[in-house]
Amino acid sequence: MSEVTGAVAQVVEHDLGTPGLMLVASMAALLAVAGFHTWWARRHGHAPPADDTGARPPSTGPEAGVSGRVAAESGPDGATEAGAGDSALWRMRTTVQDAPGSLAALCAALAGRRVDILSLQTHPLADGTVDEFLLRAPGGLTGSELAEVVSEAGGADTWTERADAHDLVDAPTRVLGLAARTALDAAELPLALRQLLGRCTIRSLPAGGRAEAGVPAEGALDGTVLRLRAPEGGVISVERPYLPFTPAEFARARALVELDARLGPRLPHGRDVLTLPEGHDITVRRADTRDLRAAKAMHARCSDRTLGMRYHGPVGDAERYLNHLLSPRHGRTLAAQTASGRIVGLGHLLWDGDETEVALLVEDSWQRRGIGGELLERLVAMAAETGCASVYAVTRASNTGMVAAMRGLGLPLEYQIEEGTLVITARLDRADRPAARLPHGERVGGQ
């Protein structure tokens, strides 16, 4: 796998500025990894994989896990949402002995309960095989009953979860989509890992710390936690409840991170030119650590009050703050700049474990002109595009500008106040989510 990744990366390094070549490189390496595991599964006598964990953004429903933990249904007595005559989609993972007939016995037991196997993926282990299914089951069959059927047929450590239409996407299509997103935008790596590995929590740990010293160059796999060296230094930690990662999942994650490292810094080129009420044109674009000098200069022009509202206190080390905020590993940043190229506003969308934070800073002389609202609208649209269920902003209760911007979204809001600190949470219900703007698009005319 590393040889394939290295060869592809060498080709890419000849022309990092060509998005098409970057895209092809990412696709080729990830598909090579997927193809290897398909061959391996066939060699062990199982059906080829047709789907994978996490084919959709993280679910907001109840979790399920091994050893009797199964997905909770909506009814008080554990009945499924669908009626007895309907069908329901399930994702199921179980461990079987790697012996002739073991998978056949499990499939026969499912067929006996009129359960249709839509796809199957295998993860070979040293002492068995983890089989992952996408199932269509009768609506009256609960997750507990599915687990019991599988257990009686020889399955162990069975995990079930309700699935949806996103899980019907086949593995090659899903991998191609992840490759395309990652090749175009370095900030997509955490999201691609989450979709590749299923519902999980991803954290970026700083370089030079104890966490980095304990992770070898090839990464480390420990049950439900995997750690990989980040391309820019530090460690990417991925953890998910209940389900241990398999060697196959670890290899795929490592290949994706290695490709990201070889592709280097990159951002989508979309720009949105806005005309403010007084006639000034402002350009909104993506930003990263290469904009550090301009962002520091904007900080220097901001008043202590404005910085205090943004950071909830004095800022003694702006560079340390900005390095973190501008890093694509921690989220996405939008910059508002004048026709001369001077940055006058920054908006950040930050991945905070399983949650998502939004933050704004607009230079004093450019406040009250709608820049903050424009940045916030685009950040929330990006969060919705990635499947986030909510976003939150932390500010001071006296920050009327931020409160007004959040209210201007037209989304359901929740407020929490403690000792002068205000946390505003916007719920991104599917029916209320705004259309995403400036994800990777072309230059768009402003208002």
Question: What does this protein look like?
Answer:
This protein is an alpha+beta fold. The chain folds into 3 domains: 2-41 and 170-263, no CATH class; 60-163, Alpha-Beta Plaits (2-Layer Sandwich); 271-427, Aminopeptidase (3-Layer(aba) Sandwich). It contains 13 helices and 16 strands. The chain has helices at residues 2-13, 19-43, 102-112, 143-152, 171-184, 189-197, 210-213, 247-263, 292-301, 304-311, 318-326, 371-385, 400-407; strands spanning 87-96, 116-125, 128-138, 156-162, 201-205, 220-222, 225-229, 235-239, 271-275, 281-287, 331-337, 343-352, 355-362, 390-396, 413-418, 421-427. The strands form 4 sheets. It has a 5-stranded antiparallel β-sheet with strand order 9-10-11-12-13, with helices on both faces. Strands 2-3-1-4 form a 4-stranded antiparallel β-sheet, with helices on both faces. The termini are far apart. The model is unreliable at 1-84 and 431-447 (pLDDT under 50).
Task: Quickly list its features.
447 residues; alpha+beta; Alpha-Beta Plaits; Aminopeptidase; 5-stranded antiparallel sheet; 4-stranded antiparallel sheet; 13 helices; 16 strands; elongated; disordered N terminus; disordered C terminus
